[in-house]
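Researcher: Sequence recovery benchmark, item below. Answer with residues only.
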């Protein structure tokens, strides 16, 4: 008995969102957002922590982006068309009034 492969679009959507967030971070970084760290007028400890945090995010974003792109490629949803039964507005309203699940 052959089993049909199930599609899980949520993983694809999460991977796509992660790629968008990482791309926005790198755009912020390239367009001078990291220069705002120089505007920190706090203690040297705060500046070191900010630079360390930025370095960690840069190093973590590279493999995360690669894994997200691999997930996008491997789990691309198939274009399937599901035909639903046509109902008029009055039939849909009648179903809601009867309490039946729509």
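Model:
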């Amino acid at each position: 008995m052959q089993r049909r492969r199930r599609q899980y679009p949520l993983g694809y959507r999460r991977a796509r969102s992660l790629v968008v967030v990482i791309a926005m971070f790198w755009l912020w970084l390239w367009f001078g957002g990291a220069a705002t760290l120089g505007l920190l007028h706090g203690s040297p400890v705060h500046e070191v922590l900010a630079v360390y945090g930025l370095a960690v995010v840069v190093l973590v974003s590279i493999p995360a982006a690669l894994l997200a792109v691999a997930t996008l490629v491997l789990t691309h949803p198939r274009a399937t068309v599901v035909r639903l039964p046509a109902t008029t507005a009055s039939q849909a309203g009648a179903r809601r009034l009867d309490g039946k699940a729509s």
